[in-house]
Fold each of these.
Amino acid sequence: MDTILKLTNVSKTYKSGDRELTVLDNLNFSVERASIISIVGPSGSGKTTLLGLCAGLDRASAGTVELQHKTLNILNEDQLAIIRNKYVGFIFQNFQLIPTLTALENVMVPLELRGEKKIKDRAMALLEKVGLTNRIHHYPLQLSGGEQQRVSIARAFSSNPIILFADEPTGNLDADTSSIIVQLLFDLNSEAGTTLVLVTHDRELSAKTQRILELKGGRIISDSQGLHE
Amino acid sequence: MNHHTNSFNKSGMRDRGYNFPWLLQMAWRDSRHSRPRLFLFISSVILGIAALVAIYSLGNNLHNEIEQQAAELLGADLEISGNQPSTPEIREMLDSLGGQRSSQQSFASMILFTKTGGTRLTEIRALKGAFPYYGTLETEPASAGQSFRNKQEALVDETLMLQYGAHIGDSVKIGSVSFAIAGKLILAPGQTGLSASVAPVVYIPLQYMPQTDLAQKGSRISYRYFIRFNPSTNVEELVSRIKPQLEANNLRYETIQSRKEDTGRSFTDLTRFLSLVGFIALLLGCTGVASAVHVYIKEKVNSIAILRCLGVKSSQAFLIFLLQIAGAGCMGAIAGAALGVVIQQMLPIVLKDLLPVKISTPVSWTAAGQGIILGIVVSILFALLPLLSIRKVSPLSAIRISYETSGRQKDLLRWIIYILIALFVFGFTLIQLHNWQRALSFSLYIAVSLLALTALAHTLMWMVHKYFPSSWSYLWRQGLANLYRPNNQTAILIISIGLGTALICTLIFVQSILLNRINMSTGAHQPNIVLFDIQDKQEAAIMNLVRDFNMPVKETVPIVNMRLEEVNGINAEEAKKDTSKGLSYWLFSREYRVTYRDSLTPSEKLTAGKWQGEASGNGLPLISLEKNFARRSGVHLGDTLTFNVQGALMQTIAGSLRDVNWSGIQTNFLVVFPKGVLEDAPKFKVLLTRVPSQEISAKFQQAMVKQYPNVSIIDLGLVLHVLNDIMSKISFVIRFMAGFSIVTGLVVLISSVLISKYQRLQESVLLRTLGGSRKQIFIITTLEYFFLGALAAFTGILLALIAGYGLAYFVFDTEFTPPLLYILLLFVLVCLLTVVTGLVNSNGILNRSPLEVLRTTG
């Protein structure tokens, strides 16, 4: 199997006054291409920090993070931006759509950034897949939470990422909407063959993934197989 | 490690560049919801741009008008003037010039409105000929400008007639002759409202001059000759031919070209001054822009973080918002230029008393273009500082709301922008002033003033916050606490409104200092009225008249007119040729009014040399010179000065230097002779007395004008009146310009209120949810703006007080008593203006229902 993400002896510390706070402590693991894994753990266990490091949003204090065989630690900010645009997709707990752009424009942004042509059809097709054909010209504020997350999913897949990071994707949704969104996410993921890294503390959701990494106090306390086939 | 870096490049991950069309598209898309707000930010600079465009347009139009109306400014092709009656030599020279010629004798004289008994010192112009040859004497009725010339009639300054209740057909007594008023004089060539305030003009026909008995020995009469040539005459060439003769006869000349240049220069100075005042308003607006963009970008942090997550480079994110601001700046600059064109229509009205030409107001496209470019440049330059923070927005902010970049790091670009702003201020000032030292001083002055205002604003805010009584009711405390709301632009508001207040307040103080100084110099026993030009034979009778009015003769001072012929054997011609001698040419061209006495007066102090009270008979008399006059003219102690005392040459030695206090109603002289030298020379006297009241002053002046019409009278009332008139005309212009600063402050206030509207809305909803009534929220909001206005007004007044004391002590050398009533009025006015502006713009907040807001934000 091809390794797409590899962390070696990764630690992350923050300075708080004179004290050093270790948020992640010597983590080692790797993720295979097209796999679906979840990172679980209680609040403050370091899940979001880990996601930030894996996606090239932040830098490790020690150790190396390799994404698609590229060591992120040594890249500058602009190079990291290119990595994110080319390889990475994001889904956020609070949807994080750009409020001043319509649904369609939000989906088009990653493609426009690449300078790709004829992107409107692709964006429209993705919005159709997530069931928002009739809402494409609406602004985020005019959409419900579930609809915003659908746009977010369409945006995440628009650039054909090789890895998708989802940070509590159902955290702000009711139970019914959550299950629809999760289904949509898994369906699109299997169709595109993307690696999916889910950060959640929803045990039910993590159980649907192939592999569960459990964090506590900045350390991996278990690395087990989930129920998902 | 290198392996990875190399593989990064090899795998095609090269920089995609900036993708400029996409950046433009993003800037456009993102601005869709923010356009009114962006325009509001930029609106702070609109007034500054408008002021500058209006002033530049005025400057351009003025330049064109002076160019076109130059002939009307002078009224002739050539004007020759001097202080001596024409001699055969002068007449011969004038005759040789050919063309048409008019003559005018002008002098200061009292006039008496016989119907009302009013008297006033005026400038009499006795005219013969068809002058003006270009333009007209603008009169009402229009025909009076011509008809008065052949009759015993006068044209009297319009304002003077209004002041003294005189009407056309009334008679006015000038010297020994009564003239019927033929018409009101509205405008004479080259005259301005300001010059008419200082010396209102009365025209009479020259043929009646002898009958007036005003041309006596020692009278100060200016003789002018106005000449119109055939259009083919080269006036400049002609003037250069007769120049030696003019200089030999102490005659001055002016051509259309030289008048054009002089007037142009004066008004370039005026427009430069006004544009610097406008520039201050613009700078205040710029700080408002910087502050508003700072708030705007803070709100955009999340969108920027999302874009960064999606792969946008920090520099691209920076450019998206820079393009937005540049676009808004462009709109603001265009709006400012358009408003400037409107204001430009008003400027001729504001400046009407200072302008020598009638000015039309076509749109000056050059000025509008300059304004637009300036607007875009300043909007970008000042928005760059807050925009820089975009580069530091981490994509992590998208997943962690509480994420903040670590501390304030040193940012070289920030310093570069500070330097660019400083260079811009200096460069702009340099373009206006054409002198780098002055430009540097002005730039430093602005920097220091703004820093002082900022420090003052922050100190006041801190003190009020710290020492505000905690026992006061909740409404007061909440109103005050609102000032310290995060992202509130309190400091910048205090600075901009405060600066406008400071400008207006300083102006009031200067006016008060000047008037106080004159009032103080005429204490209970000091003279308050001066009678000039008393002939020897009139002296005893006038002294008797003074005593008949129970007034004291405080002092009689003899005055002898003379000219300077040589200094150490060097005459005017030599001094002009050889500037290494250090003697100023004007030293020889002016007429001196000299006195003689044996002691110093209380307003004089000997600073160098030896005072000679009485000429000893051994050696040349030692005269005393005013020290600044000696310094400016290049005359030193021990120099030999040869005077021409109305035909007789008299050698003297510069024996002493005096420091003279020129303020007050008293006689002071540049040159004082000892006794025993000038007693037999033709002279006139000045008499100083004190009138107990304005009524007696009026009666006394009437009696004087009736019996001794050649004697000119200046009383304190007239001085104060003239000073007030001049000050009010000048201060109107300055107030108009200072208004731009205040209104800019209010625009920043409106922008600030609207920016923080959402926050205010939430605060208001919260308070109403907790049971606060509409009335209570209204009171809190009112108090917030009252505190803001009060702090701004207080800052401005405090700064003006410092300036006032400084000016009184260092410049005017007098005491300073702040006019408390004016200060109080100004304070109340600024507070009121701030409260009204704030409340009008907060109206929507007070009227929204809590549920409506909670639904929207939920």
Amino acid sequence: MLAYIVRRLLQSILVLIAVGFIAFSLFNFVGDPINNMVGVEATDAERDAARKRLGLDDPFPVQFARFAANAVQGNFGQSYRLSIPVETAIAERLPATLELVFVAAVMALAIGVPLGVYTGLHRDGAISRMLLTASLIGISLPTFLIGILLILVFSVWLGWLPSFGRGATVDLWGWETNLASWEGFKSIILPAVTLCLFQLTLLMRLVRAEMLEVLRADYIKFARARGLTNRAIHFGHALKNTLVPVITITGLQIGSLIAFAIITETVFQWPGMGLLFLQAIQFVDIPVMAAYLCLVAFIFVVINLVVDLLYYVIDPRLRLDRPGQVF
Amino acid sequence: MVATVTGAEQTTSTWLWRFRDSVRRFFDSDVFYSFRRSPVTVLAFVTAVIIFVAAFGAPVLAPFNTNDVATLDLTDAFRPPVWMEGGTSEHLLGTDDQGRDVLSAIMFGTQVSLVVGFLSVIFSMVLGVSLGLISGYVGGRIDHVIMRIADVQLSFPAVLVALLLFGFAKAVLPRGVQDAVAIYVLIVAIGLSNWVQFARTVRGSTMVEKNKEYVQAARVIGRTPIAIMVRHVLPNVMGPVLVIATISLAIAIITEATLSFLGVGVAPTQPSLGTLIRFGNNFLFSGEWWMTIFPGIALVILALAVNLLGDWMRDALNPKLR
Amino acid sequence: MSEARSNQHLLSVENLRVEFPTRRGTLVAVDRISFHIDEGEVLGVVGESGAGKSLTGAAIIGLLEPPGRVAEGNIVFDGERIDDIGYEKMRRLRGNQIAMIFQDPLTSLNPLFTVGRQLTETIRTHVSIDERKARVRAIELLNEVGIPAADRRVDQYPHEFSGGMRQRVVIALALAVNPRLIIADEPTTALDVSIQAQIITLLKRLCREHGTSVMLITHDMGVIAETADRVAVMYAGRIVEIGPVGDVIKRASHPYTRGLMNSIPVIRQDIEQLVQIDGSMPRLTDIPPGCAFNPRCPKVFETCRTERPELVDVGATKAACWLYDYARRPGAGSTT
């Protein structure tokens, strides 16, 4: 098991280096960083001086190593657009995005998994069929359109919920949160629903498919033959066996929640990382783009590692030392 | 399938014939039968055809040519749909802030969406199938490298990859040409974000096919690897590729709309459905919802129809795929 | 238990008919069969795959998979009908009074739970004792089925056991609350030949010790010969012959049973080739009218093609064959 984890860690580090390399290339080959530093009017001498000072004369590997060392310390330089250090800009925005993603993920799990179990257990029921049809529409609905529809109905027509921004946040030990007051919570409802809806339908369809698969298994038949109650069979034996694939997908989906937050944050003008990144793309703010890329890659890698570890907790078969079989 | 291995004389026409033959078998099989048996699929198909005709026939069929600024009449701006107070039968779905007919704009916009969708799927299909063939046929280190790249890319959602590529292009390209090439950048960006599925599937099938006798035979008589891949392996993996292409089309259309909505998509002079939704979104709060909602509905119906076709195709061809 | 019950059969199945409604009409998978099992008796059920053996077992324990259903007949267990008693009552019976063992020990156990947990869970479903006592009982059971170091292995997961050991665990699970009837559906088919005999011997010994009746479903005549007291031969959803195991094997009456017996290789006899029955069992969609075996029967005559034979006494066994209805038989008077 240890060998396996070490191998996964090495793989993760490789991925991070690869992404770091892409981010570094953004810096170095896209546009002249000197232009961005000293301005277009600078003389050649000034440019050379700046080049020396920044170490741009150094051989390529040295530059990359320096970039990586800075990146590890969270140092990505100044944002071209905001003229503040990138890490400051991101630190300001990160809580908003994480909170949004967290609420959306909890909602998707809390609703998607039970609905999946329900539709799996009552595969031919009228409600199940309705939910399945609805889920296909849900998959065909782009995230931004869901947001627009929700705004139209709940903000414009009904006037119940705010349609943009974080509204009133409460400062909890240095963390601006929406979850501590009703006013703040009202602001997060629509963005979170928008963000979670697609994942919710995906999760529901997945759990349903897995549930149907597991319920056909021999050990379920044998559990019935032993006279176990339906409750024990469905929620003990069947549900636990559906969890392994569900955890994989949930892990991957948290990654895509962070990416889809870009869209949701744009629709709702939610002041998070995604909005920052989108503005960076529009203004070619390369340090911010590079930092975002590295941060997102880091989050993905961490999630993947957590997912791998969860497998071990859930599936005893994997606890044997046979690393090759996990893929 | 028993492939005839006749040597170097095999001409393009025999290959074409064989491809046509496999297409014909595709329609003769249970697949076509299951199509007729599923009313939802038939409905989806009819809907898709209607949308395609309306989109590509827009220059002829649309009530107004919304791409021609001369036809716009500002006095006609902000008209609601025909059934609401103030609506006119001239503009069935109302007009936007510049007096542009919403229905016509949707038809032209769908055309842009479809063109981007199709071209990007073709791009990712060619790229993915080629890489999959090479990966599966050659194996070894090349296979390892390609599949690792695929793994890494797969853990990043397509929208994010497309956004990054778009940002990259925007940084590299000079400002002047950006609008003109925006649509191609978009096609490449979406195409690059979707190749992995193709590559994985084709690689799997290739690894199965390459060990079969007919491929061995072709190798023994000295055919080049490329000939073997294209003429022998490729026809055998077309089924799953078609399924993935269909599902990818829906994804590509949605991705395009999303990027255009975010303002990093096609140029505003050539609005796609996503662009229309973006513009209309500005007027949502003043109550002119039709500018946003109708293009939105068109987008959803299009995506749903394509998704339904893909879903059915997957089940009909092979319930175990996925 | 009342006096009257003591001379009753433990299980009796009367006129059981299992149907599968499909789009192309209703398939009759088990067609009006009747048999009984007495206390402590082992009834073997043989037949080719698709003959309806497993479905009969599933019908008895109430686990027919939809859309399959019991369309006709009744199943009486310990003097009470059990085919119409509703889900909850049936559930209390399962594992407690009637247990079932399936073919594949590799897939019969939930891979995510320790065998101990699966045992205690079964015990505590039917007997109200605490977790600690259930665990003691679980270890006892594992000991009883011959698993060494049971007190350690009780906390292991199914994948840590070999195939034969897993089937022992399955048997322990089936015996956990001392059921009165075990339906064993091909319990050794998935195992290595060397292990098969061990498992059969174990099952036989435990059931004798506990006085448990067994319905042993298999296609292996060898297993039947050394285990069963009586045997029922099934063909295309019907019982064609039933009787004491020795009589069925040595003096089979039904032409199908005879063919079946002749197709068993006998090592000591020096015969040139195995006898086989020509053709194959009909599919459920096209079972011929009359006797289902008639297209393959060497002794077929007119009546066989039109009317279905019922079980009649033929010496020590009962056979469903017109040959033994002397009134209907052509050229009445000639002997077999």
